[in-house]
Amino acid sequence: MRWEDQRQSSNIDDRRMQRGSRFGGFRGRNLASALPIAKFLLKSKIGRIVLIVGVVAYFLGFNPLDLLNPGSQNVAKVNSQQDNQTAKFVSVVLAKTEDIWGKIFKQYGSTYEKPVLVLFRGSTQSGCGYASRQTGPFYCPSDHKIYLDLSFFEELKSRHNSPGDFAQAYVIAHEIGHHIQNLSGTLDKIHQKQKALSKSRANTLQVGVELQADCYAGVWAYYMKNEYGLLESGDIEEALNAANAIGDDTLQKQAQGYVVPDSFTHGSSSQRMEWFKKGYQNGDIRACNSIR
Q1: Residue 94 belongs to what H/E stretch?
Q2: Left if phi > 0, otherwise alpha if psi is -120 to 50, otherwise beta: which for 182?
Q3: What is the pTM of this model?
Q4: Number of helices and strands in the chain (H, E)
């Protein structure tokens, strides 16, 4: 993907330097371990000043224990050139989703509401609860934000054997697809329907939602190639490879050695590739009718 000279989005919330949420990352056991230190600091004037600074730092979102025990930190190399380059790439991809979906919404007489993409390393707080590396990339309908731990891209390459910048772009475009569904009211309608259904049927509806997001990612890729000319040879293959790698059947086989189709929530590898291709080949959101 030719992205180096493209516009970057201003809708990036970069939390990579934060040590987790103020409410989720500074846990009770850390507070307990801080009490003896606090008692010691209270014995002197300088100590009381240090304690006050620590309290202020805490309410600004920093963990003061990180300063007292830097050896215990397990924070990624957020200042590395590669990490910052990846963050820049994410910002460019987000900008292109803004441009393309803004154009599509205008075609339908509507205005596109741009989401915010939160970059983090380790953990952070979201409008949908605590976000961590284990949750993977996700879109939160409550706050209209996408949450992305950059380490997922490393996992995508090493664990799922899906390298390439457009594999990463596909992941972002898929989450933007959920934002489109939220703006259109689809997510709320499906959520209401699922309440009255069996788990198996509710899962089937959820698969349709995920496949539609894959299809929307394909529509975005269509515009990236045909209107902006930013795709390079092999880009679509990178996206399809990623879609194949994170299909429910593939992941279940890797984790447990067998497949349980009724438990699928995102779709099989073949389904995910199929719906991405459908969006890419048609370039029309009306082709993304996977919810049935």
Answers
A1: helix 81-107
A2: alpha
A3: 0.81
A4: 11, 6
